[in-house]
Amino acid sequence: MTSSKPATPPPLPLSVRAARALATMDNVPSPCISVCRMSPTTGLCEGCHRTLEELRAWSRMNDAQKRGVWALLEARANPLEA
After folding, report:
1. Which of 26, 32, 58, 70 might form a disulfide with 21, Cβ 3.0–4.6 angstroms?
2. CB–CB of 47/33 below 8 Å?
3. Within the chain, where are the H helices?
């Protein structure tokens, strides 16, 4: 008898997650999707599109600062729409 874990659903698109985060007044969620790899070409995390500095500072940011990062992430993920 083998036990298999249910498959983890893929994360929602960044635009959906960003819209939800930007509408959150407190406890702004982290953009992390557990794909923690820094791109050597962009210098951004391939999962959440944050810089190393943004990753380091996240836990010290207030909610307004976190919403500011979310706005940047949306622009980074969709450079043609920005």
Report:
1. 70
2. yes
3. 14-22, 52-57, 63-77
Residue 23 CA, distance from chain mean position: 15
pLDDT by residue, tens only, the chain of 82 residues: 566 777 778 888 888 999 999 998 899 999 999 999 999 999 999 999 999 999 999 999 999 999 999 999 988 877 655 4
Residues spanned by the domain of 44: 14-23+33-77
- The residues with which 45 forms a beta bridge, in sequence order, are 38
Query: Is residue 72 in a domain?
Result: yes
Structure token pair of residue 34 = 């557990």
For residue 30, what are its two tokens? 């982290």
